[in-house]
């Protein structure tokens, strides 16, 4: 434990550097939010006020829903710029030279910023989970009705597919929640263990009965004989829960980490693909942790300026590394959504890749 604390500079110096970093990061964040929110309002306020009954209160409500999204998106950029400003100022004032003359390594100089970045990452994850996710879900629902009155979500869903063993159940419409849910237009595609279609059972309505669903006015078509048979009432989908029908679509951005994890488990049990959602789940962790990576990528702006005098060039290099990380992160996440990358790789590969790049640049230039 003593060796761990010896890795950091003195307590006074660590607090001084961390304070500089945090103040600059959140000052930049405030400026970005003010500018971007103002620009966003220029395009959206007219649409909001065009709806009869909407007033300035709805505009301010929109700001309250949109601002958390902007903060979540641009906080990593603010951390990057805050890092570069902090390290550039320290170097310009010869404070980095003084620290290195006192025997501190480059990693020790960066340690307070990395620890502060970890604190920002924890704050970012909590903010995303508690505030951004519900705000996103509400704003998406409001946009779907063109900023009109929000409809009450009673769980109604359309065109839902659920897997039951080897068979597939298609439902045109489902209304209600829990055991009171009612299915309309049910089609059961019966398949054998080799995934070959052997029959199709249809029913006008379906209700919960026991561990399955009772179909009324059911009719079955046998593939082998090519004949229809009226079977009246029958039970299908044993073991299929109601929430497996109601989870027809999942918005990863509008769910907290635990809610998205639960939704993925339900979708897996329903036999639906979840790779893109799994990538988004992992990214809810790797995204905020980019705040820990930014001091390492921006460190190129901290060292060597006294010898070369190229402060601007080194600052641009730090910004280029940081923005290249964000581009790679978005690209990997897009590939994960397409199924080209495994979910874990899509979320974490850019983080570990640029962690290695940042370490390599730091070791080559200073250590």
From TrEMBL:
Does ATP-binding appear among the keywords?
A: no
Give the record's keywords alphabetically.
Answer: Cell membrane, Membrane, Transmembrane, Transmembrane helix
Q: How does it sit in the membrane?
A: Multi-pass membrane protein
The subcellular location is: Cell membrane
Q: Which domain of life is it from?
A: Bacteria
Q: Which InterPro entries match?
A: LptG (IPR030923), LptG/LptF_permease (IPR005495)
Q: Which Pfam families match?
A: LptF_LptG
- Indicate yes or no for the key word Ribosomal protein: no
Q: Where are the transmembrane segments?
A: 21-39, 59-88, 109-127, 311-328, 340-363
Q: What is this protein called?
A: LPS export ABC transporter permease LptG
Tell me what gene encodes this.
lptG
